[in-house]
Design goal:
Blueprint (H helix, E strand, L loop, with lengths): L1 H25 L8 H24 L5 H22 L9 H25 L22 E4 L1 H6 L1 H8 L5 E5 H11 L4 H19 L4 E5 L9 H12 L2 E3 L3 H9 L4 E2 L1 H8 L8 E9 L6 E4 L5 E5 L8 E12 L2 E8 L2
Parallel strand pairs: 1-2, 1-4, 2-3, 4-5, 8-10
Antiparallel strand pairs: 6-7, 6-9, 7-8, 9-10
Helix pairs in contact: 1-2, 3-4, 6-8, 7-8
């Protein structure tokens, strides 16, 4: 992207110099007659090009939302100033004074309109709906992805299988947070950050997923959670996160959320009374003779008379199932 901008700016700068030479040539001067005129024209072209590029660089961090807010503020301020200056009170008196009063009204009104519009640009979509970054595709559900979901990594497999929405949005501040984690001196944090960035790159390569980076200015919001919720609200999107507290905060503010852990738990096969399967017994149970094993989803399996087979794989049959706070607990008997 930086290389592209450099090429565009260099091309524009060259056009400014060529344009200055063409203006000098159109004026009918010759090099032998007016070399100073040629230098003046070329210097003017160089100066104009340089100033334009400097303005471009200065406005680098100015968002589309901010530009639209400024335009709206200028328009509303100009309209208000025009209505006030059309008052009959400003038709009588010294023409010079009336001109200065009207000019002052325009400057003050346009300034106030611009400042007010910029301060409220985050909620500006309530006034002019087209400013809101609403996706054009109405048949796909947009999903905003947070840092925890990218670090977890399972989102790539889910998207690749086609179970996830085709429109994913990753805010720029999420990428910045991943980069900050990847640059950490702590090896574990560094590995997590790099994994998140790797997953992000892998998502970009999926043909069935449209991944976009959200670049909008989010005003004075400093908390990442508040920014994520605001982006999801603005896009009318769902929020994909593994952060339970963020999910509850989003739900409180009317934002639907997705949790990969909830999906994984829902997809785990459930055991039922009479089902037979093999399980590895790893420790003794609470009562005498019992042995404990665990299913793939973490559900505890209690095997009666299985203590002698701890450290081995036993073939068992489910005799009862007890719901618990951590899931479901299955009581089984050995099949010899």
């Amino acid at each position: 992207m930086n290389r592209t901008f450099f090429i565009i700016r260099a091309f524009f700068f060259t056009l400014c110099i060529i344009g200055a030479w063409l203006l000098w040539y159109a004026a009918g001067f010759e090099v032998t007659q007016a070399p100073s005129k040629l230098l003046l024209y070329l210097f003017t072209g160089v100066l104009l090009g340089a100033l334009t590029i400097l303005v471009d660089i200065f406005l680098k961090g100015f968002s589309l939302r901010g530009l639209t807010a400024v335009t709206f503020g200028l328009a509303m301020g100009g309209l208000i100033a025009f209505l006030i200056s059309s008052s009959p009170l400003l038709e009588k008196g010294d023409a010079h004074t009336i001109f200065l009063v009207r000019l002052g009204l325009f400057v003050i009104s346009m300034y106030l309109g611009t400042v007010i519009a910029l301060r409220g640009r985050d909620e500006f979509n309530l006034v002019i709906p087209y400013i809101k970054f609403v996706p054009q595709k109405v048949d796909s559900q947009v999903v905003v992805v947070d840092t925890s979901a990218l670090i977890d990594g399972r989102i790539h497999g889910i998207c690749k299988s086609g179970f996830m929405a085709s429109e994913l949005v990753v805010p720029r501040f999420v990428i910045d947070e991943l980069q900050h984690i990847a640059d950490s001196t702590d090896p574990s944090r560094q590995a997590r950050g790099r994994k998140g960035l790797q997953v992000l790159n892998e998502l970009r390569k999926l043909e069935n997923i449209h991944l976009s980076i959200q670049e909008s200015d989010l005003g004075n919001r400093e908390q990442v959670d508040a920014k994520l919720i605001f982006v999801a609200q603005s896009l009318k999107a769902r929020l994909l996160t593994l952060d339970f507290n963020l999910a509850k905060l989003a739900e409180f503010q009317g934002v639907d959320w997705l949790n990969i852990n909830s999906l994984a738990k829902a997809l785990n096969p459930e055991v039922f009374v009479g089902e037979k399967f093999d399980i590895e017994l790893i420790k003794t149970g609470k009562d005498e003779g019992q042995a404990i094993g665990y299913l793939g989803d973490g559900s505890m399996v209690v095997v009666n008379d299985g203590e002698a087979m701890i450290g081995q794989t036993a073939h068992v049959e489910v005799v009862s199932i007890l719901p618990s706070a951590g899931g479901r607990m299955a009581f089984c008997k050995l099949i010899r």
